[in-house]
Amino acid sequence: MTQKQQKNLSKEKSTNKNNINSASTTWLQLIEFLLKGKTVSPRGLETKEQICISTRVDMYEPMVNIKSRNIGERFRYAEAAWILSGDNKVSTIAPYSKMITKFSDDGVRFFGAYGVKVVDQLPYIIQTLKDDPNSRQAVLNIWRENPRKSNDVPCTLSLQFVIRDETLNCLATMRSSDAWLGWVYDVFNFSMISLYVLLQLKSQHNLKYKLGNLFLTAGSQHIYKEQWEKAKKCIDKKDYFQDTKSPVTLKNGDELIDYLWAKAKRLSEKDKDQLILSGV
Question: Is the entire prediction scored with pTM above 0.85?
Answer without folding.
Answer: yes
